[in-house]
Structure formats: C-alpha cells, structure tokens
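Support request, please re-run this one:
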Amino acid sequence: MTIEEVNASVPDIVNGFSINVKNIYNLGARSFWIPNTGPIGCLPHVLTQFPSTQRDNNGCAKSYNDVAQYFNYKLKETIVQLRIDLPLAAITYVDVTLSSILYSTNQRNMDLSFHLLLVVGMEASTTTTILWWVEEQSQ
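Re-run finished. Output below.
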C-alpha cells in the first residue's frame, strides 16, 4: 500500500474501532484506556525494511510518522464523539508517543506495573486496531 492508500483507510479503521468500543460498552464496560499509536517510523523494523525513505531530524521514517500522527488525530476526534455517545463511560486517551519518549529517556526511574485484562482486535485489511483494557497491578 502507498502512504496515500494507508491514509485513506484510516477513517474506516477508526470507525471500526469506534463500533467495537460501543459494542463493548453495550455489554456493560464503562472504563476504557485507548492508546494512540507511537512513532512507528522510528521502529527498527521500519528503518531496516525501508532504508531509502526520507528521514526526519531524529533519523526516523518521516512518512510513517506522518501516518501515525494522522491516525492519532482521527482517533482523538473519535474519542471526543465516543464521550458524547457513551455518557456513562470513562474514556482515557493514552498518549503512547509521549509515553515511549519518556520511557526511553527514563527507563531506570520508571516502574510500569501493568497487566493486560482484555485485548479486543478489529482486523481491517492489513492493519489491526487493538483496544487494551489495563489495570494497575497492586503491589
């Protein structure tokens, strides 16, 4: 797929994700943590598979990070609407981009004590959108 084709598919992916959240809400769920996508253009796999792609100031694949930012923008719009449509839900937008930057610069000082409760996936072409429910692990 080209970058343009991936960008064109983002609204459908996010819409499918929204439908899944509503379905889970209708089953009784009320608390959601919804992570965005991180800077995928910085992943070693992307950098090695596409070595000639244009790089940004950090050495990451610019077009891939542009797609991630567009996805995150559309996801934020969807979360705003979900908060209106699901008034009893507590929806937390988790900024994975910021988290990954903070974690990579402060690994020794951070204790990320989380465990996975439920993962719900929605397959759309070659892209998978995942909703994670996580709960802080008591120590």
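The first strand starts at residue 31 and ends at 35. The radius of gyration is 16 Å.
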